[in-house]
Design a protein that fits this description.
Blueprint lengths: L1 H12 L5 E3 L12 E3 L2 H17 L16 H25 L6 H24 L4 E11 L4 E11 L6 E4 L4 E4 L5 E2 L2 E2 L10 E4 L4 E5 L8 E10 L3 E7 L2 E7 L4 E7 L5 E7 L4 E3 L1 E3 L15 H9 L6 E6 L12 E2 L4 E7 L1 E3 L3
Parallel strand pairs: 3-19, 3-20, 12-21
Antiparallel strand pairs: 1-2, 3-4, 4-11, 5-10, 6-11, 7-8, 9-10, 12-13, 13-16, 14-15, 14-18, 15-17, 18-20
Helix pairs in contact: 1-2, 3-4
């Protein structure tokens, strides 16, 4: 029943840090956040965050490097060369051979050859492979062995992607202000009733104009999956040490102890135990928030270093398989994780 579901959600939220809700737009920063420990109000704030994320999607990310400009110089050079060859040179050659009637043959032939050169030049200059840029935040749910991952993926390819398979419970949002309106999609002065389709026969398969060719396309993918990986924290003399149980190498980690002190460490290999160093200034604790993930993910990331026992970390590789089409990474993936650390021997 609905009452049982609400009660279960209250129990789940009991292990979460206080909800933080900012009713302003992500770019405004002028509206103060609201923090509460009341489970019922936290449910309402969490639903409000989801509604806000859907009606006000994250800002469209920047284009992939090298794709924001058209290779005008090469196309202009080919156009000028074509004009010179098909005009004066072609006419001079035919007049010299006294075969002006062949002008009706050489002109279309030169045009076809130029079109072929333009296509080859475009493929060589921009490539045919699919390129991508990945950023991901994984929130480890302390109430159970599961996680929520927000992945912001940017793509650019020579050809459109016909279909993209995802898990049935994955949520995919196309980050484009031109297409996004309320809860649906709209096009610029065109009918998009068949532009975006989803096939639910096996999981979900996205088809249509999700990733058109020769355009920067950006997707925000939210996944909920089982996850047993955790970070362990234990006493070490008067300080603390962290054990990497996440799998990938931890590039940097920040953790707040039960007394409110902030600790950090760098470069933790999987299974390795490393002593933590106390921080005097909270501003040094992985302060930068990964952008483009939406307000819910960004608030989860911000909250994770506020409450005692919680951590946030930058990873060298993703937790699990990245969703979406595979492609050539134009830069290393920016991967982050946050959650409640497993505390051992707190004394």
């Amino acid at each position: 029943s609905q009452a049982d579901e609400d009660e279960a959600e209250v129990e789940e939220l009991g292990t979460m840090p206080p909800a933080v809700f900012n009713p302003g737009r992500p770019s405004s920063g002028a509206v103060p956040a609201v923090t509460t420990d009341d489970p019922g109000l936290r449910i309402l704030l969490d639903h409000a965050q989801r509604m806000r994320e859907r009606t006000n999607p994250p800002a469209e990310p920047s284009p992939l490097p090298g794709t924001d400009r058209v290779a005008v110089g090469g196309f202009a050079s080919l156009a000028i060369l074509f004009a010179v060859v098909v005009g004066p040179l072609n006419l001079w050659w035919l007049r010299k051979r006294r075969a002006r009637h062949l002008f009706l043959v050489t002109t279309p032939a030169l045009s076809l050859a130029t079109c072929a050169c333009l296509i080859v030049y475009s493929l060589v200059s921009e490539g045919m492979e699919l390129r991508r840029r990945i950023a991901q935040i994984t929130w480890l749910d302390p109430g159970g062995e599961r996680a929520v991952a927000w992945t912001q993926a940017s793509y650019y390819g020579g050809f459109s992607v016909a279909s993209m398979p995802f898990d049935a419970d994955a949520e995919v949002v196309r980050l484009s202000r031109d297409d996004y309106h309320g809860y649906g999609y709209r096009g610029s002065q065109r009918d998009t009733s068949s532009a975006f389709t989803i096939d639910w026969h096996q999981g979900q398969t996205l088809r249509g104009d999700w990733l058109p060719g020769r355009q920067n396309s950006h997707l925000l993918i939210t996944e909920r999956r089982p996850e047993r990986a955790r970070v362990q924290i234990a006493r070490r003399g008067e300080g603390w040490e962290a054990v990497n149980g996440l799998g990938p190498e931890i590039v940097a980690i920040a953790w707040r102890d039960p007394q409110g002190g902030l600790w950090q460490a760098d470069h933790l290999a999987f299974g390795a135990a490393t002593p933590l160093t106390a921080l005097a200034d909270d501003a040094d604790a992985l302060a930068a928030t990964p952008g483009g993930m939406g307000p819910v993910a960004e608030h989860r990331w911000s909250d994770c270093v506020v409450q005692p026992g919680w951590f946030r970390a930058q990873l060298a590789a993703p937790l699990g398989v990245l969703p979406g089409p595979a492609g050539e990474d134009v830069m290393p993936a920016r991967v982050y994780a946050c959650g409640l650390a497993v505390l051992e021997n707190p004394r």
